[in-house]
Amino acid sequence: MKAIVLGVFAAFFFAAAFIFNRSMELSGGSWIWSGSLRYFFMLPFLALLVIIRGNLLPLLRVMKLDWWRWILWSSVGFGLFYAPLCYAASFAPGWLIAGTWQFTIIAGSLLAPLFYETVQTTTGEMKVRGKIPIKGLFLSSIILIGIGLLQVEQMNSLSLRHALLAVGPVVVAAFAYPLGNRKMMDVCGGKLDTYQRVFGMTLASMPFWIILALYGIFTVGKPSQTQVVQSFIVAISSGVIATILFFYATDLVRGNMQKLATVEATQSMEVLFTVLGELVLLSAPLPSILSWTGMLIIMVGMILHSLLSQSDSKPVEKSEGV
């Protein structure tokens, strides 16, 4: 029960990213600063965690051996994940972005053939190319139905162009996040713990964020004080607190696949928390019955997908969330 409660709290803090990204957009802030400032603020806090654990030098030695792949896949996993999410907030409310973001489960399944997995045979272990989980994709169709229902209401209030600009970047992010993270797992080869890998990826993605920030200075100017403060809140809430809570929750149930699946499924609560947060903080209009139905279907699909995927799964490295 403790792990589930912690998972729900993690989803609550993860939702801050969707809420405050929308808030910054509504107050005139640029998506460029919403993205780059979050990672600038995350860097020192994550560095402190790694230093306290005495793992900084081993991390730097590993990064030095393959620095270009660290930069490449960190830029994909963090840069091409979060920048599009911030951009999408320019065109749609946070709850729609949070709902559409659940597509990442489907994207992760579709990426399976790009990676190899270790299987046990009569002659020992061997690596085979991953296969798309057909049963998992069937359940994923439930999530797609829920996402589709979310879009119906927006299609009535947004032009086709704005609807595509809201949904398209989220789909890009949904593929970039698991792609970059899985590639980095291969690069790390089990040599680093989760905190080292997250800090290493944040550090290696700095060229991406610095270039984006420089572009922002010359195109939209410096961020306002309000946007700086809200970006700091997102960095601490979603980037640090939520990640630590989620890791702790999954560590509590490590080895029990059914309980682990339940904890992972709590992340579907991001959608509900985002809705409530926008209603309270942004005075956003209440979603329609159709949209509520879509969100419910997404959460049910997330839970079923998680339970199925863990029923016969091998131990996997945990995701860092949003």
Secondary structure layout:
Elements: H1 2-26, H2 31-52, H3 56-65, H4 67-88, H5 94-101, H6 104-110, E1 116-121, E2 124-129, H7 134-157, H8 160-188, H9 194-204, H10 206-219, H11 225-252, H12 257-265, H13 269-281, H14 289-311
Helix pairs in contact: 1-5, 1-11, 1-13, 2-4, 2-9, 2-10, 2-11, 4-8, 4-9, 5-13, 6-8, 7-14, 12-14
Written account of the structure:
The protein is built from 14 helices and two strands, in the order ααααααββαααααααα. With 322 residues, the chain is mainly α. The chain has one domain (2-311). The chain has a two-stranded antiparallel ribbon with strand order 1-2. Keywords: Membrane, Transmembrane, Transmembrane helix. Pfam families: EmrE (PF13536). This is Multidrug resistance efflux transporter family protein.
Notable features of this structure?
single chain, 322 residues, mainly alpha, two-stranded antiparallel sheet, 14 helices, globular, transmembrane, EmrE, transmembrane helix, membrane, Multidrug resistance efflux transporter family protein
Please summarize what this structure is.
The protein has 322 residues and is mainly α. The chain has one domain. The chain has 14 helices and two strands, in the order ααααααββαααααααα.
Estimate the global geometry from the Cα principal axes.
globular
Helical element count?
Answer: 14
Query: How are helices and strands ordered from N to C?
Result: HHHHHHEEHHHHHHHH
Q: How many DSSP E strands?
A: 2
**Sequence stretches where pLDDT stays below 50 over 5 or more residues:** 315-319
What share of the residues lie within helices? Answer: over 70%
Main sheet: which strands, in order across?
Answer: 1-2
Please indicate the count of domains. 1
Q: Largest sheet, if any? A: 2 strands, antiparallel
Keywords: Membrane, Transmembrane, Transmembrane helix
Transmembrane segments: 41-60, 67-90, 96-116, 136-152, 158-177, 198-218, 230-249, 261-283
Protein name: Multidrug resistance efflux transporter family protein
Organism: Sporolactobacillus kofuensis
